[in-house]
Write a structure and sequence with these properties.
Length: about 240
């Protein structure tokens, strides 16, 4: 299923990137072999970080922290580290959408029916039907059918339920982005208020709360200065 999602992303990308009217305004890029090395190019270059996991699944973690530290604003649900980021940067500097954890539980308990959202939202229905028509697969309507069946009959991540809220929130993102000064201010606030998520603070808390270790002194004898003459003994505390 994951490979089919990637196939759909690249299929949409092929159409968008070849469109003469659109390709200079918007491009879809799928970055293969994503890792720490190439992510260093992505984080500082990003304006918006999309952390769209379903609330309660704790799927949002260190990646969204790195985006926010580098000034990217976040559009996301109340899931995982998104909650802490929103508390740190302020609700006014975070684009929130989607169900809460309690609402997810309630909807599941009532009997979640993705078809209700599909039939009740013309925009969503058109998007799903366009994929099913073979529009992005050279007329092959069966290629992405397993993906659509999963959405319409199971939808374990409740994407259909969160869809309209996400679309509405993206409109708010677009409006904010049009005001360059306002967006820049929010971006700076994101970076400034993300100090809480530094590795120094994290390791210090791990030492105190999990590993139960404390700093200890180590003497460094016969330290040579640049000119080769022994300097005074130095004492440092490891762990600080």
């Amino acid at each position: 299923m994951a490979k089919l999602m990637i196939k759909l992303i690249t299929a949409v990308g092929d159409m968008v990137n070849k469109d003469p009217d659109l390709r200079n305004q918007l491009r879809v890029v799928f970055l293969p072999n994503y890792n720490v090395t190439n992510s260093q190019r992505i984080y500082p270059a990003s304006d918006l970080s999309e952390q769209i996991s379903t609330a309660g699944l704790e799927a949002s973690g260190t990646g969204n922290m790195k985006f926010a530290m580098n000034g990217a604003l976040t559009i996301g649900t109340l899931d995982g580290a998104n909650v802490e980021i929103r508390d740190a940067v302020g609700a006014e500097n975070f684009f929130l959408f989607g169900l809460t954890t309690d609402q997810v539980s309630e909807l599941k308990a009532e009997g979640y029916r993705p078809w209700d959202f599909y039939n009740g939202n013309p925009l969503l229905k058109d998007a799903v039907d366009l994929i099913g028509s073979g529009h992005f697969s050279q007329g092959d309507g069966s290629l992405f059918q397993p993906l659509l069946d999963k959405l319409l009959h199971h939808d374990p991540f409740m994407l259909m339920a969160d869809y309209q809220s996400y679309i509405d929130c993206q409109k708010a993102v677009s409006q904010a982005y049009c005001d360059t000064d306002h967006w820049t201010r929010m971006s700076i606030i994101n970076s400034v208020r993300m100090g809480k998520f530094s590795s120094d603070r994290s390791i210090q808390e791990y030492c105190e709360e999990i590993w139960k270790v404390s700093p200890f002194s180590v003497s460094l004898n016969a330290v040579l200065r640049a000119d080769g003459i022994p300097a005074n003994d130095l004492t440092c505390k490891l762990g600080q």
